[in-house]
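step: validate -> pass
step: tokenize input -> pass
step: predict -> running
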Amino acid sequence: MANDELIAALREAEAVKFGEFELSHGGTSDYYVDKYLFETEPRCLELIADAFAERVGDTKLAGVALGAVPLVAATSVATGTPYVIVRKKAKEYGTGNRIEGAFEPGEEVVVLEDIATTGQSAVDAVEALREAGAVVNRVLVVVDREEGARENLADADVELEALVTASELLADAE
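step: predict -> pass
step: emit ->
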């Protein structure tokens, strides 16, 4: 799948908005990529799952709750590979798990994420998985906003791989 096809699908889903937006890490931006618009649009979800499937092989998958859950579920179906969900914090009821789903200690896991800005939520997920015994070397994201995520993940010895960069997504978009 070419990046062009995914970029066109993201734009068609109207997932790229222009204006002034506050981002989750507290900064502001003159554009916003609305993950809920592309994650709830079947064609976008299919393109993303297929692109991720090409890159993950048979490696166990992990999705960061809540945003990456549709992505990891669709990719799991596309690959036939089970997945786990990493919560931002352990739940305070039931099993109290931070990681939902099963994996073996020492098993390689690749983290799927929707959008990376600073990469902090991905770093947190990687740390939680590693603490639980997983081997994590890669994070795959749909959109890299190119605002430090690659460097922050590299500091945690993790490679960031993006389907699309903000530069590609925003080129000729306004």
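step: describe -> Strands lie at 16-22, 28-33, 60-64, 83-86, 99-100, 108-116, 135-144, 159-165.
step: cleanup -> pass
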